[in-house]
Specification:
- The protein is α+β, with helices and mostly antiparallel strands and 832 residues long.
- Among the domains are: 107 residues, Immunoglobulin-like (Sandwich), CATH 2.60.40; 107 residues, Immunoglobulin-like; 116 residues, Sandwich (Immunoglobulin-like), CATH 2.60.40; 78 residues, Outer membrane efflux proteins (OEP).
- The chain is built from 14 helices and 33 strands.
- Helix 8 runs antiparallel to helix 9.
């Protein structure tokens, strides 16, 4: 079925491989299929879908209904936030034999289930045992509890306003008994509840006092009981609000301020009667509904909103079921509402407690769950919500983020970085280069400042006159001392080359500062990359060792089966080959770990201290904004290497002017004073006299053998070189920023997809191990399942490291990578 419908978003096919075994394949865009699981003791299959058009979901339902050999009935249930699931009633009870996820083609994945028919057993009736209503913020919560298999299908109806909750598979008697005896206290929106039955499916019908919107729902199995929560909020159609003048008003602004551990929000210009607010979890968010207001009336204020604290990760505008405007504040963690309501005329205010550890890279979820370690053999990947939430990657950093020096965290990553700041030769060389460049300014300034020099000369003179043309002049020899002391001060008045050189020096120092900052960013990235590689190496070695131990046990089992006659030589040789491959992979993993540790030692000059792993699994988040354009534009403006190239062009242009200034005259103000003292002369008497001079000295170069002309040509060529290097760096910055952005998105999708792949391979491995006990599979097939399981787990762990490293690369490409990012990354790691 659907073999020729490759253009569809969702495709389904069913293959009968052997009596009692059936293979169901669902193909969907990557991320469109959340999971498939057997329900109702194997008599039903639930297919969870994400972001799929309703038409595609309905088409999938129709295609599944054609499989009469497996399917008894199919229906689709649509949930909030573009999610849905397809409930498939099977012709009999089945058990899961194998489950795999593979890439079908570009942008698509195929989820395959192998189902085996199980022995018929009498299923226990599903009971509805409790119905409870509770008011929370501006919400009405409906709580249902009963058997672990309890499920509900919800519909919101109008005229009159009511909520219909269908309970397929539930005992009608338990539903009727609970509705007949139900008594509710004073809660908003609720009028009464009654029980009914349509098409053999029992239902609860809630009569409501106003139109509502289903804003949240949750289900879980706790202590053997199924629990369902439905959250309702009042709703109003936009058309009703256009009668009054207030409907044409605009939301002026969204005010936000901090008060210790509280965040205060206010919406001036909106009557409090039109507003309702409530906090939701998983994910954490604060919702403010402006009933009767169109989304266009709040878009401008929402676009101008600037978060005053990392606890608010973003703001978006949505619509309610009936079209009213809805403001959704995404929070970094759980933040309960403390107060809400009118605060004066046409002003609505609310207060909420800031999320715990808001502003850090991770905020802890409920502590009832322990940290997840993936290195230990036999530990299952937890399919529940991850333990940590990664803060969205933003173009700008909040100024209140604490600096690294004041951080209370103490992790191996921060310890290595502090060592690297003092001991990394590459970074120390960059610091020395900056110190060298910083001396260019005083050296260039010296060419514009006055110079002073003192000359002193003392000599002994012997003078002998043999013959004089004038008979009155004496002849003979005489000896006398002589001394000369002079002070000369020169002040340049016009020295164009020196002036251009001084301007060049200032730009050169700024260029050196950018180079030093780039070296620091490079050090941050090298330290983070080295440490993540070591952590990945530790995981790889632990997984390879666990795989080798598992295959060793299967190899021993294969030898025992061969000895007992249950196996053959081929199976034994296959098992031995797989065991040898596992040992080789363990050695390769050890080599990679050693190389990663040596790479860190190359930076800090000493052996790496003991490393702690992650505190637990974490949820990756998309960059904000989630488009490549703003990041590329920011890289073009802020990339450090590109800014250094721009300064190099300015320096080269000044160099042309400096060399051309070699044709210009130079003017110096020269002042000198001298004193000469002679102790005698031929005539027998000494002399002493003082001289003082002040004057202008003008030098006009006429010809220097063509040197100046050659230097000008050289400067022009260097300017062309600098411009080409700037253009090359510009293109490189655009490529790196776009590549890093795409890398973050790709690794984000990979983490989510590979997490599901681990769960699938984990389930397949357990099925193979059970099948080995019954003789359905051989030890070789179990060893293959181990290999696939550990490969999937290794790929999943590596995808997490790639995601974290790509975040840092993106910030480096934009030029905003700093020590704070290491502090953020350390929030995910266990302390020393």
């Amino acid at each position: 079925m659907a073999a020729d419908e490759s253009g569809r978003a969702l495709e389904a096919s069913l293959l009968v491989t052997s009596p009692g075994l059936q293979r169901l394949q669902i193909e969907a865009p990557v991320g469109g299929l959340a999971q498939m699981s057997l329900m109702a003791q194997g008599q039903a299959l639930r297919i969870d879908l994400r972001r799929q058009p309703r038409a595609e979901v309905e088409a999938l339902v129709q295609r599944l209904r054609q499989e009469i050999g497996l399917v008894r009935g199919v229906r689709a249930v649509y949930l909030p936030q573009d999610e849905a699931y397809v409930w498939v009633d099977l012709v009999s009870a089945f058990e899961l034999i194998d489950q795999t996820i593979v890439a079908a083609r570009a942008g698509r994945s195929r989820w395959e289930l192998v189902l085996g028919q199980s022995q018929p057993s009498k299923a226990a009736a599903v009971e509805l045992r409790e119905l409870r209503l509770a008011a929370r913020d501006d919400l009405l919560d409906i709580h249902l509890s009963g058997s672990a298999e309890l499920m509900a299908e919800v519909s919101v109806l109008e005229q009159p306003a009511r909520l219909v909750v269908e309970l397929p598979g539930t005992s009608p008697a338990s539903v009727e008994r609970l509705a007949a005896g139900f008594r509710a206290g004073p809660v908003p929106l609720f009028a009464r509840v009654s029980a009914g039955n349509q098409g053999g499916v029992p239902r609860l019908e809630f009569q409501l006092l106003d139109e509502v919107d289903l804003v949240d729902s949750a289900g879980e199995v706790r202590d053997g009981q199924g629990r369902i929560r439905l959250s309702l909020a009042a709703d109003r159609a936009v058309a009703q609000a256009r009668v009054g003048a207030a409907a044409e008003a605009q939301l002026e602004r969204i005010e936000a301020s901090l008060d210790k551990q509280r965040l205060e929000l206010a919406l001036p210009g909106v009557p409090a009667a039109r507003l309702q607010s409530y906090a939701l979890e998983e994910p954490a968010r604060l919702v403010v509904d402006l009933l009767g207001w169109r989304p266009e009336q709040v878009h401008e204020a929402a676009a101008r909103f600037v978060s005053p604290h990392p606890g608010i990760a973003g703001l978006r505008v949505e619509t309610t079921r009936l079209g009213s405007a809805r403001l959704v504040f995404d929070l970094s963690g759980k933040a309960p509402l403390l107060a809400r309501g009118a605060a004066g005329d046409a002003r609505y205010a609310l207060s909420l407690r800031l999320p715990a550890e808001a502003g850090s890279l991770a905020s802890a979820q409920p502590a009832a769950r322990g940290a997840t370690s993936y290195a230990q053999r036999g530990e299952r990947l937890d399919p529940r919500a991850p333990l940590l939430v990664v803060r969205p990657l933003m173009l700008s950093r909040d100024p209140e983020t604490p600096p690294l020096a004041t951080s209370e965290r103490n992790t191996a990553l921060l310890a290595v970085y502090r060592e690297a700041l003092e001991r990394d030769p590459k970074y120390q060389a960059a610091r020395a280069d900056y110190e060298i460049a910083a001396q260019a300014v005083p050296q260039a300034r010296a060419g514009l400042l006055p110079t002073a020099s003192i000359d002193y000369q003392k000599s002994a003179i012997r003078q002998e006159v043999d013959r004089a043309s004038n008979p009155s002049f004496p002849t003979g020899a005489s000896r006398y001392p002589s001394s000369n002391l002079s002070l000369t001060i020169t002040q340049p008045l016009l020295r164009a080359p020196a002036l251009f050189k001084y301007n060049q020096a200032g730009i050169s120092v700024e260029q050196a500062r950018f180079n030093l900052l780039a070296a620091e960013q490079d050090l941050i990235l090298r330290v983070a990359s080295g440490m993540l590689n070591v952590m990945a190496g530790n995981d790889g070695l632990d997984l390879a060792r666990a795989e080798r131990q598992a295959t060793e046990r299967q190899y021993e089992l294969a030898k025992a089966r061969k000895t007992s006659g249950l196996g053959n030589v081929t199976q034994l040789f296959d098992a031995e080959a797989r065991h040898s491959q596992a040992r080789a992979r363990e050695r390769e993993a050890g080599n990679r770990l050693e190389d990663a540790r040596l790479a860190v030692k190359e930076i800090i000059g000493e052996d790496l201290p003991a490393l702690g792993g992650f505190k637990g699994d974490f949820t990756p988040t998309e960059p904000m904004p989630a488009e490549a354009g703003p990041w590329v534009n920011a890289a073009v403006e802020q990339n450090l290497a590109l800014q250094a190239r721009r300064l190099a062009v300015q320096i080269s242009e000044l160099e042309i002017k400096r060399q051309k200034a070699g044709y210009a005259p130079s003017v110096n103000l020269v002042a000198s004073t001298s004193r000469q003292d002679t102790g005698g002369s031929l005539f027998g008497r000494g002399q002493r006299y003082n001289n003082a001079e002040v004057g202008l000295r003008v030098n006009i170069p006429l010809f220097e053998g063509g040197m100046t002309h050659s230097l000008v040509r050289e400067a022009n060529a260097r300017r062309d070189k600098a411009q080409n290097e700037q253009e090359q760096e510009l293109r490189r910055s655009e490529r790196l920023a776009r590549g890093a952005f795409n890398g973050v998105l790709a690794s984000l999708d990979s983490v989510d997809a590979l997490r599901k792949a681990v769960l699938a391979q984990q389930s397949a491995l357990e099925a193979r191990e059970e099948g080995l006990k019954s003789g359905l599979f051989t030890p070789v097939q179990v060893m293959d399942a181990y290999r696939l399981f550990y490969t999937a787990k290794r790929d999943f762990l590596q995808a997490r490291y790639d995601y974290l490293l790509n975040r840092l690369k993106l910030k480096q490409a934009v030029g905003i990578l700093s020590q704070h990012d290491l502090d953020d990354l350390s929030a995910l790691l266990q302390p020393l």
